[in-house]
Amino acid sequence: MLKVNYYYFFFIVFTASLSLSTTRGETHLVGDDEGWTQFPNFTYWAKGKSFHVGDTLVFSYAQELHNVVQVNGTSYEDCIMEPNLGVLQSGNDSITVAEVGQLWYICGVEDHCKNGQKLTIEVLP
Ligand SMILES: *[C@@H]1O[C@H](CO)[C@@H](O)[C@H](O)[C@H]1NC(C)=O
Ligand SMILES: *[C@@H]1O[C@H](CO)[C@@H](O)[C@H](O)[C@H]1NC(C)=O
Ligand SMILES: *[C@@H]1O[C@H](CO)[C@@H](O)[C@H](O)[C@H]1NC(C)=O
Ligand SMILES: [Cu+2]
């Protein structure tokens, strides 16, 4: 009986630490309260923040006004939609970053990207 309780105890500890490690990533609300809109400076927003594998980016915006297009570095600089690595358009998009490296997001609507609606982050281990 004692032995059974022992195993049960370790099972609880193990499950608890497992769920801790899977919820450890931070959530970053892109643009804070202003959200994903045209005029915040997202370079400024990202400055001084650190992004790690397992963190979640939340893009919050009016669905009929914006979208989120993942592009590469060249397309980010030039504000072009191709090559397009994925488009999100729910208005409340969560992206959990899975890999180390640079990520680039632009808004693909009209000239929003040229107006500054673009974000690049470096994901650390
Ligand atoms: C946005 O913020 C960055 C970092 O602070 C700064 O270097 C850049 O000049 C700003 N861009 C604009 C358009 O204000
Ligand atoms: C982005 O993709 C285009 C088309 O595949 C390619 O020509 C360009 O070199 C890429 N840029 C970067 C920085 O990877
Ligand atoms: C947006 O999504 C996040 C994460 O999925 C959720 O926690 C939040 O409640 C959602 N917000 C709205 C306004 O739907
Ligand atoms: Cu937009």
TrEMBL record:
<keyword id="KW-0325">Glycoprotein</keyword>
<protein>
    <recommendedName>
        <fullName>Phytocyanin domain-containing protein</fullName>
    </recommendedName>
</protein>
<keyword id="KW-0479">Metal-binding</keyword>
<keyword id="KW-1133">Transmembrane helix</keyword>
<keyword id="KW-0732">Signal</keyword>
<feature type="domain" description="Phytocyanin">
    <location>
        <begin position="26"/>
        <end position="125"/>
    </location>
</feature>
<dbReference type="Pfam" id="PF02298">
    <property type="entry name" value="Cu_bind_like"/>
</dbReference>
<keyword id="KW-0813">Transport</keyword>
<keyword id="KW-0249">Electron transport</keyword>
<dbReference type="InterPro" id="IPR008972">
    <property type="entry name" value="Cupredoxin"/>
</dbReference>
<dbReference type="InterPro" id="IPR003245">
    <property type="entry name" value="Phytocyanin_dom"/>
</dbReference>
<dbReference type="GO" id="GO:0009055">
    <property type="term" value="F:electron transfer activity"/>
</dbReference>
<keyword id="KW-0472">Membrane</keyword>
<feature type="signal peptide">
    <location>
        <begin position="1"/>
        <end position="25"/>
    </location>
</feature>
<keyword id="KW-1015">Disulfide bond</keyword>
<dbReference type="GO" id="GO:0005886">
    <property type="term" value="C:plasma membrane"/>
</dbReference>
<dbReference type="GO" id="GO:0046872">
    <property type="term" value="F:metal ion binding"/>
</dbReference>
<keyword id="KW-0186">Copper</keyword>
<dbReference type="InterPro" id="IPR039391">
    <property type="entry name" value="Phytocyanin-like"/>
</dbReference>
<dbReference type="GO" id="GO:0009610">
    <property type="term" value="P:response to symbiotic fungus"/>
</dbReference>
<keyword id="KW-0812">Transmembrane</keyword>
